[in-house]
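Our consortium's second objective concerns turning raw sequence data into structural hypotheses that experimental partners can test. To show how far this objective has progressed, the report includes one record in full. It was chosen at random from the queue rather than selected for favorable results. The single chain below, 347 residues long, was entered without modification.
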Amino acid sequence: MDPLDLLNGLPGSIDLIARATALLSLTALLAWAFRTRAATTRHHLWTLTFVLLIALPFASYWLPTLELPILPNPAPAPEPGATASLPAAAPAVDSDLAAPGGWNGSSLLWLIWAAGSLLALASLAAGWYRFTTWVREGTAIDDLTWCETVAQLKAQLEIRRRVRLIESPQVHTAMVGGLLQPVVLLPTSARCWSEERRVAVLTHELIHVRRLDPLRQLLASAALALYWFHPLSWLAKRWAVEAREQACDEGVLRQGAQPSAYAAHLLQLASGPTTANAAALPLIQSSQLEKRIKAVLAPRRPGHNPGVATLLIALLFVCGIATAVVEPISPLDAHNRACKYKNPVPD
């Protein structure tokens, strides 16, 4: 394929990448600026960002465009009779003309993007299948002590949804998953846990259920499948996971857990093997453990301010819509278009 033909498919792709970059950069800046606030606020911001990223291609197409004259004016044309040494212009290539083999630049770019997206979605589907298999082959925990603990914690956290407890020898750490029917998967070693550890772990997992974190995880995975080519999207998902787990840790501490004891539980549970799954939320992830421990043991824990969170979410939503509809143009182009509309050429 001629390289010039490949360039014909770039403008639309570059425009989408630029808009996604602006949105991800804005959220990263807000998350960094409010890094000393409650992790719940940062996780709300990242969740909204993933929703906006998914909606961005559709919003850019369906919503009306808002032209913003912020680009520099183009260079003036040379005066008549003036000569200048200019490089030879490349021959124009019609984007509708197919390259040898029936492919043009746009088709190739779409094919590469679709292959990466399908691979990411296949990984997510495999994770969901693995999780449902663990649930189906596991054993329901009907121990009276565990059931009473879950009932008490659900009442404290105001959770009305039914939550199943499943014991599986295939998992090595507690995890939660399921969109319509939440399931807490526990390793077989959980039967030997102390009451303090049992309460701490179940509180953490039930906070995930209350916050609809399995659904948020699905939205993040869907956004990553669409923008797998963008490095910031991978960082965004990692930062979202950090904020999510820290938000649940903060919730456990607000329920009365001692920071030192809770940190000790996390460290001891992290000493065993981990279980990776794209569709479930494990209690322990080695890459996040150090930051979580530091946040748990911090002398001052930030409180969640709903007013600040609401203001930031509204700001990000407005900026996200603006990212989708704003089209930067030069002041000269804006003037020319305004004159064209004021003085239309008669038929």
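The partners drew two points from this record. Residues 150 and 218 are 25 Å apart (CA to CA). The first strand starts at residue 66 and ends at 69. Both points have been shared with the crystallography group to help prioritize constructs.
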